[in-house]
Specification:
Layout (H helix, E strand, L loop, with lengths): L4 E4 L12 E5 L4 H6 L10 H9 L7 H10 L2 E5 L1 E6 L8 E5 L2 H7 L4 E5 L1 H11 L17 E4 L11 H16 L1
Parallel strand pairs: 2-3, 2-6, 6-7
Antiparallel strand pairs: 1-4, 4-5
Length: about 180
């Protein structure tokens, strides 16, 4: 059986001053850590879903992926800055240090936050939501609520690409155009 590893998120969030949508994952998978960028597992459908929704080609390189995100005002990050984890198993995550999502929210005009799967939403509610009271006047507004989208992970085999894309389109589209 694999052992826990204490890991720290090694790459920065992707966002700019025009980002309106923030999509949060949990913590980078083994493949994402190897590729030093988000959603790096070849079977993860994240990039296929976003390409379909935006009408863009599926990006291959990290610069193409960043361009797709930023040109459509989408920010991407993970809820966790560091944790103990076994491989890529979200269910094994423990001893969490949350990412500074409130800091990102102060720097970008995020209108909606989405969780890529239930675990990202659960971790956001547990670790990030309590920190949001530190924003500006202390109010937590609707724009700081997280909306759950089905996971694009290959482990979420119950959702085929077509169904996944439709659900993501329904969630994101009001904020994209």
């Amino acid at each position: 059986m694999a052992d826990y590893q204490q890991l720290t998120h090694e790459f920065e969030p992707v966002y700019n001053q025009e980002s309106k949508i923030l999509i949060l994952g949990t913590f980078p998978s083994v493949k994402s850590r190897e590729g030093n960028f988000y959603y790096g597992h070849p079977q993860n459908r994240f990039w296929k879903v976003l390409a379909s929704i935006t009408g863009e080609p599926i990006p291959g390189s990290v610069p193409e992926k960043k361009q797709l995100l930023l040109s459509h005002k989408i920010a991407v990050w993970d809820v966790i800055q560091s944790c103990e984890i076994i491989g890529s198993s979200d269910s094994s995550i423990r001893n969490v240090v949350p990412a500074d999502i409130p800091g990102l929210l102060r720097q970008a005009p995020i209108a909606a936050i989405f969780g890529n799967g239930a675990k990202a939403c659960e971790l956001f509610q547990k670790y990030t939501r309590p920190m949001l009271g530190r924003l500006a006047d202390g109010a937590v507004t609707e724009r700081h609520a997280i909306r759950k989208l089905p996971s694009t992970s290959p482990a979420n085999a119950a959702w085929n690409l077509e169904r996944l894309t439709k659900c993501w389109r329904d969630g994101l589209e009001p904020f994209l155009f």
